[in-house]
Amino acid sequence: MPRQHNCAQNHQRAIAGALILLAVLATGCALLQNACIYRPEPYPVGDWSPSGLAWEDAWFSSSDGTRLHGWYVPCESPAATILFAHGIDGNVASLAPQLAAFCDQHCVSVMVFDYRGYGRSAGSPDEQGLYEDAAAARAWLAEREGILPADIVLMGRSLGAAVMVDLAAREGTRGLILESAFTSLPDVVEQHTLSIPVDWLLTSRFASIEKIGRYHGPLLMCHGELDSVIGLEQGRELFEAANPPKQFVTIAGADHCDPPDEDWHRTLDEFLTRLPPLGLARLPRVQ
Question: How far is CA 249 from CA 14, 164, 176, 243, in A?
Answer without folding.
Answer: 24, 18, 14, 16
